[in-house]
Structures are given as C-alpha cells and as structure tokens.
Amino acid sequence: MPQVADNVLAQPVTVLKGVGDKQAEKLAKIGIETVQDCLFHLPLRYQDRTRLMPLGSLRPHQEKLVEGVIQLSQVKFGRRRSLLCQIADGTGSLWLRFFHFSKAQQQQLARGMRIRCFGEIRNGPSALEMVHPEYRLLTGTEPVPVDSELTPVYPTTEGMHQLSLRKLIGQALAYLEQQQMPELLPDALRLHDVAHYKLSEALKYVHLPPPDVDVQQLIDRRHPAQRRLAYEELLAQQLSMRKIRINTQRHPAPAIRADNRAQKALLNSLPFPLTAAQQRVIGEILQDLAQDIPMQRLVQGDVGSGKTVVAAIAAVAAVTAGYQAVMMAPTELLAEQHYQTFLQWLEPLGMTVGWCAGKQTASQRKQMLTALEQGDISVAVGTHALFQDQVVFNKLGLVIIDEQHRFGVHQRLALRDKGRQQNSMPHQLVMTATPIPRTLAMTAYADLNVSVIDELPPGRIPVTTVLISDSRRQEVIDRVHAACQQKRQVYWVCTLIEESEHLQCQAAEDSAQQLQQALPDCRIGLVHGRMKPREKELVMQQFKAGEIDLLVATTVIEVGVDVPNASLMIIENAERLGLAQLHQLRGRVGRGSTQSHCVLMYHPPLSENGQARLKCLRESNDGFVIAQRDLEIRGPGELLGTRQTGLPQFRVADLFDDQDLLMAIGSSADAFLRDYPDQAEQMIKRWFGNKIDFGQV
Ligand code: ADP
Ligand code: MG
C-alpha cells in the first residue's frame, strides 16, 4: 500500500487506485467524494453464493446459487425467441431462460453438461425458472467450492459497476486498518447496547462479512454490526434536525400578543363551536406566538378535524399584532379554497386577503406583489409561487404551511427564510392531515413541536367502505345513479400512478365521457391537474353549489377540498394508491350529516398484500391506525414518499425495524449537540455529507 497522508480518510477519492476525474464525477453522484465516504457507502443487501440450494427447495423471488445437469436444451419460438434449458439435481428441476444468446452459447449449454447458476427464481409460464442467470459450466466430477463470504450489493449509478465499487471500498477498508475511524459517540451517550460495538469493526463487518457470519441475521439486518451503524445513522439524522431547531431559536421573532376581540368576532361568526381539541391546539399556538423566539409547530389532525379554522385564528392573531401572515398550500385547488374561506372569515374583520399562484396574469401578479411589499395585504394565500424571489413581504410574522407532507424540509425552511428581516424570523406553523406514527414523526419533524387535533367535530358519521372488483363496474354505476337521484353528490376518482400527468388527465376525461353516456340524466363535471385554475375553480364552485351531481377527478382533489353534501366516493384502481392517500381521498366524503360510502374498486387479481391493505381501510376510519398499518405493510419510505418529506434516504437504518433505537436516542441528541458540538457536526457530515441543508440560519 502506498504511504499516505495522515488524514487519508478525508482525502478525495482520487487518491484511490483506478479513480480518475471521470470516475470521481460518477462517484459524486452517489454521494462519494472522500475515502471515508466509500466506507459509509453501505451494502443495500447481500447475495448468498455460499450455499448450493437443492432445486427441489426453491421458491419464487429468492436469489439462489444452484447446480444441476442439463436435461434438455431447446430454442423456443414464441412471442420472443428464447433459449430454454432444463436442469435437474435429483431433488427437482429448474428452467433457465435466455432471450439473448449466441450460437456458441447454445452449443455449450448442451444436454448432459453440469452447470452452476446464480440468479433470481421466478414463476415461469409453467414452472420455476431463472432468466439470464450468471452461470459457469463445470467440468469433471469433483465438487467445486462455493464462495466463503456473502457478496455485498451496493447502491450504484449508471456506468459504475458493482465490481469496481467493491474494489474501491476494499481499498478504503485497507486504509481503515492504518488509520482508526474516530468514535464520535461520547461515552456518556452510549445509551444503547449496540453502541458498544466499535464503529470501524462494524463497517468492516458489513462490507466484508466473515465466513462464519450468521447469514440470515445479516440478510435480515439484525446483526449487531448493522444495528450499531443504524443507531449512529439515526442519531446523526436527529442531530441534523435538532440543529435546525436550535439554530432557528437563536433568532428573535416578533412576540405576538393576540387581540382577543378579533378572535372572538371570528369565532362568533362561525356556525359551530370549536371542539375541545381545536381549543387546546389554538391555546398552544397562541402561547408560542407570544414568545420572542420563532414558533416551530406542527399541527397534526385527521382529515376533517378542522385545521383551517385553527390556522385562521393564528393568522388573525398575527395581523392584529401588526404583522402579515402567509398561508401556503400544495395545490392550486386547495390554495383557492383556503383563499375563499379566508376571504369569507377575515374580510368582515377588516383584514385584506391576497392570492398568489403560478398561473396569475402578469398584471394581477404585479399588483399583488406591490400590495404585499407595501403591507396593504395582511394575509397572503397561495401555492409554492410564494417562494419565488420577487415575493417580498412588508412585515411577515407568521408562515403557515398546509398539508406539509407535500413539501420537503427545504421548502419549509426556504419560506421561513423569506420572512427574515435583519435577524428576526417569522413564526412557523405547519399542518398535516397525514397522521404518521410517532417514530416517524420524531424523524421527519424532529425540528418541530407537535400538537394533535385528536377529535373530530361532533355529528360526523364514519364513512362505510366497501371493496368491489372492477368487473362489477356496472353495479357501481347503478349505485352512482341512485345516489344522484336522491340529490346526493358523488366523487369519481381516477387514478393512474407512475404515469404522466397528461395520461392521468386523459384517463379522467375518458371516464367522464363514459359515465356521461351511462348516466345521461346526471350532471357531470371534471377536474384535473391540466385545467386552467379558473376552469377548475368554476367546476368546484358548481359542485359546491350542487349544480353538478357527479365530479370526475384525478387525485388533485386529494387534499382538503370540502363539499359536505357529497356522500359517495368511487375510487378506481384503489390498489395502486397508498393507504394514507386513500384515507385522505375518502376524507372528502363523510363531512355532512348523512351516512357516506366509499367504494374502492380494484382490478383483480389482488395480491395478498393488496388485500391486507385495502381491508385495513375498510376496517378503520382512524388515520393513525391506518398509517401504522401502512408502515408495517409497505415500509416508511413508501408511506411518506421520502423525497417529498425531506426525510433522508437511510443507508442502514429502517424506521420500522429500528424503532427501538430511535426511542433509545430520545432526547439525548440535544445533550450531544450542546456538549459536543464538533463531534455532532462531524457525525452529521459523515452520514449525510452536504445533503442536509440547514437553510440560511
Ligand atoms: P381539515 O382538518 O381536513 O383541514 P377543515 O378545516 O377543512 O378540515 O374542516 C372540515 C369541515 O369541518 C369544514 O367544513 C369546517 O368548516 C368544519 N368544521 C371545522 N371545525 C368544526 C367544528 N368545531 N364543528 C363543526 N364543524 C367544523
Ligand atoms: Mg385542510
């Protein structure tokens, strides 16, 4: 090994053999810039080539090493030409399938040859098969040794081969022998058992598991070395979020002493009294606003729990104290609805409400921007257009972000930074209807205080949910017809995920047309994401006013839209959506005083997993229960849509399996940051590099 500088782990990857500028550029794409980054580039999973599996024991979806003698080898001319070989080992048989093969290969893979293969077992048309396995032909009869170690599989990028990554990481591990990796966990904070495992040992172990490893334990991610790393990774993430919080609190914020008269006037104008939960949460918010440090509070409340009025009261408090408030929503439709609601509630109090969205005309926009800057608008409502550079506030005191799960941490911080005046920060209130389990909330919102509206307004009747195969579409249409005749309104939601928005809108247009043919006496409206805001608004207003019976829509209506007379919802291809999203959609009905129904139409056959998920929705109306189940069935990344929440992609940690570690960390992250700021900084950097941006704090 070449002699290297003292601090080799901090050197750029180009010090490693075989890494030139081009290679370094590719590595940077997967977050590897230094030698140390190689060590923290952890295997996604392992391949087990240490055991030969009897063919009779194979199950689909496993990756296995097998060996057998070729019984049959033939080229099939079907829809796609393929070479098929059947192998057998006395316990059973397996097909190998090649779509691409050379003449030479075809001759090699002849009857009677002994072959060893590695690959994924799949259900073929008639029997289990491996498609394009890695293989080698064996000559002679002596047993050929199997690998003695598991093979790590790394996350990679285009043009970066697993083997090259393995070699680089091998080199980095060799340096680790020369130079110890500093242990950053202070002794006082080695709270959990796993924290006693040495970091360097743990890293070596997961990259190059020794031959005597408990293979299953490693594959299941239960090995103490993996848990040691997961613990530190979770801690690093907590540190980064807590750091955002602490840095924010260094700034002063306007202490807002609320004027009770305006609040009372607003409450008196409402047709309902607040629930106890709403009152409690409002109390918590007002208390935060009165402080001269920025509020950082999350309000969680199931769909329909009444978050809007809570936001309105916070806005009123800010305005009566002489500040501006801004409310941002993730979709134009929702922002418009909030705008209308705020107009109705706040204008009678003498407050001006402004509107800011992407699709405004230039002159409307200019006017609005000037009014905002001069302070003629007290409350601005809009979409992410509010982030834009030209938007300047006069005296921003409060930022409200609705349906937070649609925005990432970065966007949230960006809007807050907008309101900075000299050193002072606005207060920040974020609201979400995605009830997430506690452990996830701790991770995603570790920089926020959490209030929960855990009560629905009285008189709500739980929505009855049924599952129906789409082969019974006609029955569903009959049901829609009956509902319309009873003057009840209906949503028909078209879903297409992973497809373009364009296709989604097309699907909704097609459905609307078909339904209009099937139900000629129904008044049908259509909303989707590609319509002009004014068109959408018009349709929504017609629906609200009861001039439309059946609203065909894409998932744009998912969040927040409120039409109490709608009591039936049909969701097409429900199996394609996440439970939390379905629960949100379903929350559009059940807002009035009649019994509401939600029909989840699915396309059979429904997988076992799909059945379990939809059943859970049928059995519960409680967003928290559903979220917990979704987490168990699908895993946290899916549940929240990692990119959308700003939750980092974890390398080893798993928010579900490692909940105990998260609990063990608890509040110790704060003590760590306070007492060992340098170590904390290094730990964040080690795990998240420059990926976490703390805003301009
Ligand atoms: P979400 O929490 O889903 O944003 P909204 O704020 O849209 O819920 O409220 C849902 C509906 O319930 C609205 O029509 C709202 O006016 C109404 N509402 C809110 N609070 C109460 C309450 N305390 N009693 C009765 N209705 C309420
Ligand atoms: Mg809402």
TrEMBL record:
Reactions catalysed according to its record: ATP + H2O = ADP + phosphate + H(+); Couples ATP hydrolysis with the unwinding of duplex DNA by translocating in the 3'-5' direction
Name of the protein in its database record: ATP-dependent DNA helicase RecG
Entries under NCBIfam families matching the protein: PRK10917.1-1, PRK10917.1-3, PRK10917.1-4, PRK10917.2-2, recG
Function: Plays a critical role in recombination and DNA repair. Helps process Holliday junction intermediates to mature products by catalyzing branch migration. Has replication fork regression activity, unwinds stalled or blocked replication forks to make a HJ that can be resolved. Has a DNA unwinding activity characteristic of a DNA helicase with 3'-5' polarity.
PROSITE patterns assigned to the protein according to its UniProt record, in alphabetical order: HELICASE_ATP_BIND_1, HELICASE_CTER
Limits of the Helicase C-terminal domain: 486-632
Hydrolase in keyword set: yes
Helicase ATP-binding domain sequence ranges: 288-453
Highest taxon of the lineage: Bacteria
Species assigned in the record: Methylophaga lonarensis MPL
